[in-house]
Design brief:
2 domains; MetI-like fold; mainly alpha; 335 residues; single chain
Length: 335
């Protein structure tokens, strides 16, 4: 196991370096000069040249990337052109909101998608299978940004049931502890703030998690259908084991490998896919921060945010690989 972990860590280093190089080159190649976009209209050519020199944009691109890489290895992702704050500090401040949204989204997808997929796979061609197939195709086909807008129009605009933007009501909640609004107020014991945070996160979480719910339902159904025809399932039934026990103890456990793979991949996708949803719902996470950085050509903030998403994706997939051996004892990493 230890040798496998070391190999995986060594294998991710070239991936992260390559992605950092690609991101750095692409943002530099994008049209638009940060100095022109961020300085006022009254700025003279001397002011623009001074800003470019101060930000290091007057140097060759390979020199800029070399300085960025050396600083990044020391934990410094640079200073934002637009906000003049350290990029690491800005990402750390915004990332908990994105993680909180992604966790609630994946919980919704798991609670709805997996049981529906299990029941659909256990009873193919039944009414529950038809309902599950409809939910699965709906989730896969529905663009989350359009679905989010529809939720705002119907749930918030027409029925006025839930707030349509933001993370919490102004002035509600205690001082931050972990950065996760709901968790912090649970620690404080402020249940009014907890309910307020839940009311704000429901719509963006549903909009973000619906696609994953559809994918999970389809994958779970296919995996359960495949396992249902295995010999050990027929043996368990022949011994008189109840169908419910056979389904949840034998079938579902052996069908978990592809499900966990999808959950791991989709969790990383949720972190990066929340960019548009955060913009639609004005959610103060790292996704909306990235959109703001792109519109202003804030090179350090763009690169730092994308690298954060990349690192999160790599870590999630690494954890999923480790879980394989826990779920299926037949999988060994030392071979």
């Amino acid at each position: 196991m230890l040798s496998y972990i070391v190999r995986r860590i060594l294998g991710t280093i070239p991936v992260i370096l390559l992605i950092s190089l690609l991101v750095f080159m692409l943002v530099q190649a994008a049209p638009g000069d940060p100095a022109d976009l961020l300085l006022s209209d009254e700025a003279t050519k001397e002011d623009i040249d001074d800003a470019r020199k101060r930000w290091g944009l007057d140097q060759p691109i390979h020199v800029q990337y070399g300085k960025f890489l050396i600083a990044a290895l020391q934990g410094d992702l640079g200073t934002s052109f637009r906000y003049t704050d350290p990029v690491v500090t800005m990402i750390v401040d915004r990332l908990p909101a994105t993680i909180e949204l992604a966790v609630v989204s994946i919980l919704i997808a798991l609670i709805v998608g997996i049981p529906l997929g299990v029941w659909a796979g256990a009873r193919p061609n039944s009414w529950i299978d038809n309902v599950g197939s409809f939910v699965g195709f709906f989730g896969i086909s529905m663009p989350n940004f359009w679905f989010g807008i529809m939720l705002i129009l119907v749930v918030s605009g027409y029925f006025n049931l839930l707030p349509s933007a933001g993370r919490s009501t102004y002035g509600v909640g205690g001082p931050p502890i972990t950065g996760f609004f709901i968790l912090d107020n649970i620690i404080h014991g402020d249940w009014n703030a907890v309910r307020d945070g839940i009311s704000y996160i429901i719509l963006p979480a549903v909009a973000l998690g619906t696609n994953m719910m559809g994918i999970l339902m389809r994958v779970t159904r296919s995996s359960v259908l495949e396992v249902m025809h295995e010999d050990f399932v027929r043996t368990a039934r022949a011994k008189g084991v109840r169908d419910t026990v056979v389904l949840w103890r034998h079938v579902v456990r052996n069908a978990l490998i592809p499900i966990i793979t999808v959950v791991g991949l989709e969790l990383g996708t949720l972190l990066s896919g929340s960019i548009i949803v955060e913009t639609v719902f004005s959610w103060p996470g790292s996704g909306s921060l990235l959109i703001s950085a792109i519109t202003s050509r804030d090179y350090p903030l763009i690169t730092g945010t994308v690298l954060t998403y990349t690192l999160a994706f790599v870590i999630i997939n690494f954890i999923i690989d480790i879980l394989y051996g826990t779920i299926d004892p037949r999988i060994r990493f030392d071979k």
